Amino acid sequence: MKNTGNKFWAASLIWVLSLLIFCGFSYAIIWHPESEPTQEWIDRPADKLIGRWGTNGSCVPISPWHVVTTRHQGGSAGSTSIMIDGKQFGIVKIWNHPTADLRIARVDKRLSGYAQVYRKEDENGKNVVVAGYGDGRKDILSTDGYTYGYSWDNSTNSTLRFGTNLIEEITQTPKGAPLPSELVVIRFNDPDATDYECAIADHDSGGGWFIYEEDVWKLAALSRGVEHVGESLFRDAQRPKQWADPDFCHGVRLSQYVSWISGVLGGDLVEVDCDLNGDRLVDYSDWNHLQECWQRIDCDPVNGHCGGGDVDKDGCVDIIDVANFASQWLCETPAVS
């Protein structure tokens, strides 16, 4: 397997320069023309598990009230908003990891679904679905009629895209690099490497890399960096017919930050379980939602446990949930400090 040590140094230098010039650095999804996903592709995470962070990044819901993303694209509570599945959310509080390129944000309204974090440390060799908002493919790059890569289209970053890849390496940022992080690596190989082989590109930082486990898409990593800026290459630019030279893309490896993530979420349990609409009061509005969900048996993290109606999170909305609701009637949720 190709050693990426020297290339990571180059990528890190580009990353720092981009921060200084553009005040943000992030990525999106690039496919091969012959292997773009079709509209019928449903074997992937739901759209509501990926958000657009401000105007220059992506994020992933990981609880009914929290999203996770990378730090380097910036943003702040009170000024940055996110879009998830066509709905806008404000950010009321942010927790930055002490060293890594990782942050958690609390939103101002309850999210309709969220992803569980992949906790196992066996990511290497796993297939992933990669998702994010940002630039798509623009021009085909070729030498002597042989394609070696694609340039990025930076005209818009408002489209959610999904692709596939394979985790090929576990590594870390180079010594001395900013925001040192534990990483997983994918490579942009030839079109038939995976069903919808992809790379990440501009405005996808903070987007998710998902592993399918136990019938659930779990969040394994967040898009962070690429080998080349402005283009995604999969063969040698001078001799594309003879040599494959796939670009690497790296993501923040979340299995190494489970304790920190759990600590943030566990310390921010300020909502009352039955405050289903996020207005900090358990009242008739919440009761109406519970009635709408009555006897549903499809409740899971992806649909937010039926929008919170499945209070005890046992998969169905039943008399136990009604009892829990009654015990919290007119309870108020304290404001976020």
TrEMBL record:
Protein's UniProt name: Dockerin domain-containing protein
SUPFAM superfamilies: Trypsin-like serine proteases
